[in-house]
Specification:
- It contains two helices and ten strands, in the order βααβββββββββ.
- By secondary structure, it is mainly beta.
- It has a single domain, classed as Beta Complex (Metal Binding Protein, Guanine Nucleotide Exchange Factor, Chain A), CATH 2.170.150.
- Strands 1-6-7-8-9-5-4 form a seven-stranded antiparallel β-sheet. It has a three-stranded antiparallel β-sheet with strand order 3-2-10, with no helix packed on it.
- A hairpin with a 5-residue loop joins strand 7 and strand 8.
- InterPro entries: Met_Sox_Rdtase_MsrB (IPR028427), Met_Sox_Rdtase_MsrB_dom (IPR002579), Mss4-like_sf (IPR011057).
- Belongs to the MsrB Met sulfoxide reductase family.
- It catalyses: L-methionyl-[protein] + [thioredoxin]-disulfide + H2O = L-methionyl-(R)-S-oxide-[protein] + [thioredoxin]-dithiol.
Length: 176
């Protein structure tokens, strides 16, 4: 069960000590909160997305949409469309889930201590809508040594060719 929320308030910068070795541009404010009722989330999300994002579920490894996606583009929050990750920071961790060594907008990814299943981990969630994304571990590749292990159900993929149309061209440099 998730306990202490360590993410900053939406109007507060991410403190350097909590930036988990992320780049200095992490000290920017998050997007305005995106709130919905449970019934609204159930209408907006698929059953699998709701289970993962709103009930903190986990989808099966190697049997999810993006674990082996090699296309160039961005990964948005499936709930509120906040930009989270990109193909340029994605790598094959061997876990069967999409894994990233960094975020493209650190202020959009919050962290919460998760003590479920008799272990202590760091859950990551969308800072804007609170949707559960997965977990972050300190066993990833350089330069961050982080592994964001993310559920595909929490993500929407936008191919690089569609970034301008979706007003996401500011993040195109990450979609390599």
């Amino acid at each position: 069960m998730a306990t202490e929320d360590t993410s900053p308030a939406p109007d507060q910068p991410v403190p350097d000590a909590e930036a988990c070795a992320l780049p200095s541009h992490a000290n920017t404010t998050a997007l305005e909160a995106f709130k919905k009722s449970d019934s609204e989330w159930k209408e907006l999300l698929t059953a699998d997305q709701y289970r993962v994002m709103r009930e903190h579920g986990t989808e099966p490894s190697f049997r999810n949409a993006f674990w082996n996606n090699k296309d160039k583009g961005l990964y948005l929050c499936a709930g509120c469309k906040s930009p989270l990750f990109a193909s340029g920071e994605k790598y094959n961790s061997g876990t069967g889930w999409p894994s990233f060594w960094d975020t493209i907008a650190p202020e959009n990814v919050g962290r919460t201590v998760d003590t479920s299943f008799g272990m202590t981990r760091v859950e990551v969630h969308c800072s804007r809508c609170g949707g559960h994304l997965g977990h972050v571990f300190e066993d990833g590749p350089r330069p961050t040594n982080l592994r964001y292990c993310i559920n595909s159900a929490s993500l929407e993929f936008v191919p690089k060719a569609d970034l301008e149309e979706r007003h996401l061209s500011a993040f195109a440099k990450h979609a390599k």
